[in-house]
Write a structure and sequence with these properties.
The complex is a heterodimer of chains A (about 500) and B (about 100). Chain A has helices spanning about 5-10, 20-35, 45-65, 85-105, 115-130, 135-155, 160-195, 210-215, 220-240, 250-255, 255-280, 285-310, 315-340, 340-365, 385, 390-400, 410-420, 425-450, 475-495, 495-500, and strands at about 75, 80. With about 500 residues, chain A is an all-alpha fold. A two-stranded antiparallel sheet of chain A has the order 1-2. In chain A, strand 1 and strand 2 (about 80) form a beta hairpin. Chain B is mainly alpha-helical and about 100 residues long. Chain B is elongated and about 50 Å long. Classes of the chains: A mainly alpha (about 500), B mainly alpha (about 100).
């Protein structure tokens, strides 16, 4: 190959554009090196290195938030940097920080290797940050698989616990199945868009821009339509939309609590990052995409809320309520096709969801015992009396997830619903509001369990009362995280304009 | 007459369908895992065939990424299956149902 061609190709590789991802990757490697070079007695500082490193990267990222790369493509069209992409990168960094802090609390109780958890969390979040900026199917697939394989390991992390392993196996089968479906869809799209016999065929048909032009020029191609449906199905698995939600309750229950938080927050956001990109790429097949997503959104909202009503295990409950959140976000994605500000609304919703979820999962991490899968609502009895701090954080987090004004979750829902209203999606809007009303029942059931005294069966002499797991003492970093998440949930409910404008969300 | 794109794609679609149905109906985790690999192989056939008949190299390059990803997935997946077998002495999906409400 002539060297000029290589030079030309390399000229577009702006490594500074993916500086944060590189730093996250290097931090992950640094942790592994530290484990080798530090004496065993000093190993407990390694998780702190991860958190401090992440905070440093976040600070640097926020200072350079408005980079010159926004609006450009780099690496020969592999990546496209956009305002939404910048926001999502910050989102994934914040999620990784929160999950790492929760990981420190949760891993203290397990006799497990500790360093790998933080290293894998970092690698996964780096891959998600790339995923949010992918502009090519190769980039999208490799980043998505890095995320998925990382999650296989994280879900089955507690390998002494058969429940964690079972959850890992279920996630593995479902994740690999969805990857297979997605991949076949990519193969079809690549093939049909590169066919020289068709108009607007491209030699670079993995590229989203080229694919978009092709799909516009060929609006009735049956192979392309099949490819689009397969790709959307593969992504729907990742966000947990009905009918691809079957893995959610089991995997959420079996996974260690911080990993459940990571799945609920970051994995879902990554799925929606892909969806937002793909919806614009598939613009030429709008009626098909809207049809598929509308059916999914209605089924997802109804199923998630109705199935959550009967749950007593709080991890299953939060998983199924997460399914319904995916449904509301799908409504936002459909609205985003017609109304540009819906993208900003989705970002705000995700951010509110991040804060509320971190608060709730933080409390769950402190209340749960050694067996992570056994977290019943009854374990929350008298939480507000014995641990007022945890009780208040739980109430704020759950209230925000339920969408109670004036918390941030309410504003998120309001913005998404406004976008749906403006786009004229009245039927979807009705279903979504019905879903919100149902969801208040189970969210408040949980709050009630923590705040109000419950009837308990009398304990006779000689009988052992049902054992409850001992609650953890809140450490300073975890306390700061929980207080920040709860306070930000309250503040963002009142004050969001300038922050949104600064983030470029409009 | 030579073998054309349609024949390759038919093979790919059949292999994909076998893999997909296998994942849904088989009960042994290892067999399910083999079916998942079949689905990836089906995509590989489609990529190479399209690459050959469209005259672009990207499909071939993508296959290398698929191979790498599949290897990583197998490494993690088999580790999980072995660890689970040590705890539960079974890899049949209908017996792996400890997670419930």
């Amino acid at each position: 190959m002539p060297t000029e061609l290589l030079q030309q190709a390399a000229a577009d590789n702006h490594w500074a554009a993916i500086g944060p991802e590189l730093m996250v990757g290097c931090l992950a490697l640094l942790l592994l090196v530290l484990e080798i070079v530090l004496p065993k007695a000093r190993h407990e500082i390694i998780p702190s290195v991860a958190v401090v490193g992440l905070l440093g990267i976040i600070t640097g990222f926020v200072i350079n938030y408005h980079t010159a790369f926004v609006g450009q493509t780099t690496f020969n069209g592999l990546l496209r940097h956009s305002g939404t992409g910048q926001f999502l990168r910050l989102f994934f960094l914040l999620a990784a920080t929160g999950v790492s802090v929760l990981g420190i609390v949760a891993l203290k109780r397990q006799k497990m290797p500790k360093v790998e958890f933080f290293a894998i969390t970092l690698v996964v979040s780096g891959a998600m940050m790339l995923l949010a900026q992918a502009n090519n199917f190769v980039m999208l697939f490799v980043a998505l698989e890095t995320v998925t394989v990382g999650f296989y390991i994280l879900v089955s992390y507690t390998r002494t616990n058969p429940l964690s392993l079972e959850a890992g196996l279920k996630y593995l089968i479902m994740g690999a199945l969805s990857s297979g479906i997605l991949l076949f869809g990519i193969a079809l799209l690549y093939g049909v868009a590169g066919n020289p016999a068709l108009t607007a065929a491209s030699a670079d048909s993995m590229n989203f821009d080229a694919l978009r032009v092709f799909l516009y020029a060929n609006p009735d191609n049956i192979i392309a339509a099949v490819g689009i449906v397969l790709v959307l199905s593969g992504v729907a698995f990742k966000v947990g939309a009905v009918p691809f939600q079957i893995w959610i309750p089991d995997v959420y229950q079996g996974a260690p609590t911080p990993v459940t938080a990571f799945l609920a927050i970051a994995s879902k956001a990554a799925g929606f990052a892909i969806l937002l990109t793909l919806v614009t790429v598939f613009d030429g097949y709008q009626s098909l995409v809207v049809g598929v997503l509308t059916v999914m959104a209605i089924a997802t909202i109804l199923f998630g809320n109705l199935a959550a009503l009967t749950q007593h295990n709080v991890k299953r409950l939060i998983g199924l309520s997460g399914v319904s959140h995916a449904g509301y976000l799908l409504v936002g994605v459909i609205a985003a096709i017609h109304v540009p500000f819906a993208v900003g609304a989705i970002c705000f919703y995700l951010f509110a969801y991040l804060l509320g979820s971190l608060a709730v999962f933080g409390v769950m991490t402190h209340v749960s015992g050694d067996d992570d899968a056994d977290q019943d609502m009854d374990h929350y009895a008298d939480l507000a009396k014995t641990h007022p701090f945890l009780g208040v954080v739980l109430a704020v987090g759950l209230g925000s997830l339920a969408g109670i004004p004036p918390l941030a979750g309410f504003m998120g829902k309001l913005l998404v619903f406004l976008a749906a209203f403006e786009a004229g999606l009245y039927a979807l809007l009705g279903v979504a509001i019905l879903g919100v009303v149902i969801s208040i029942y189970y969210y408040f059931g949980w709050i009630k369990a923590a705040f109000f005294p419950q009837w308990r069966p009398p304990v006779f002499e000689g009988d052992d009362p049902l054992p409850e797991p001992p609650r953890q003492v809140v450490s300073t970093p975890a306390g700061i995280l929980l207080a920040t998440a709860a306070l930000a949930s309250v503040l963002l409910g009142f004050y969001q304009g300038p922050l949104g404008a600064w983030l470029g969300l409009g | 007459m030579g073998v054309g794109l349609t024949e390759y794609l038919t093979v790919a679609a059949v292999v994909f369908a076998i893999g997909f149905v296998g994942v849904l109906v088989r009960k042994n985790t290892l067999v399910i895992y083999m079916c998942l690999e079949l689905m990836l192989v089906a995509s590989t056939i489609a990529f190479v065939a399209f690459s050959r008949f469209n005259g672009t190299m990207e499909g071939n390059v993508f296959v290398f990424f698929i191979l790498t990803v599949a290897a990583a997935e197998v490494a993690v997946g088999l580790a999980i299956i072995v660890a689970l077998f040590r705890r539960r002495q079974t890899v049949q999906v209908e017996e792996l149902n400890a997670l419930k409400n």
